Amino acid sequence: MSSTLETLEQQEKKALEKLQAIKARRQALVNREKAKQKEQERKDETRRKILLGSYLLKKMEDEAEKQKILAEINEYLTEDRDRKLFNLP
Fold first, then answer.
1. Predicted structure pTM score
2. Is 56 in contact with 76 (CB distance < 8 Å)?
3. What pLDDT, on the 0 to 100 scale, is given for residue 84?
4. HSE (side-chain half, CA atoms, 13 Å) at 2
5. I want to staple 88 with a disulfide (CB 3.0 to 4.6 A). Which of 18, 48, 51, 83 is the partner?
6. What is the per-residue DSSP string for 6-59?
7. CB 77, CB 88: distance < 8 Å
């Protein structure tokens, strides 16, 4: 094998290794972005739940609204530990 051919093969091998490293970095970046997006979606969902809960608690200050909301919650909740939070039988 000629020296030129060996040099070209070495260059090709180095180029392939570099390409693999670049692809790995790109994939890591994509994975980080997906994780970041998923985390933000989770935070947004939690914030929505907190705001809805706050809204319902405010509405429940009115006794008529409270009874209506509790009737709906009574149908929705099935776990005993959840029902106890609202003093439901």
1. 0.65
2. no
3. 93
4. 3
5. 83
6. HHHHHHHHHHHHHHHHHHHHHHHHHHHHHHHHHHHHHHHHHHHHHHHHHHHHHH
7. yes
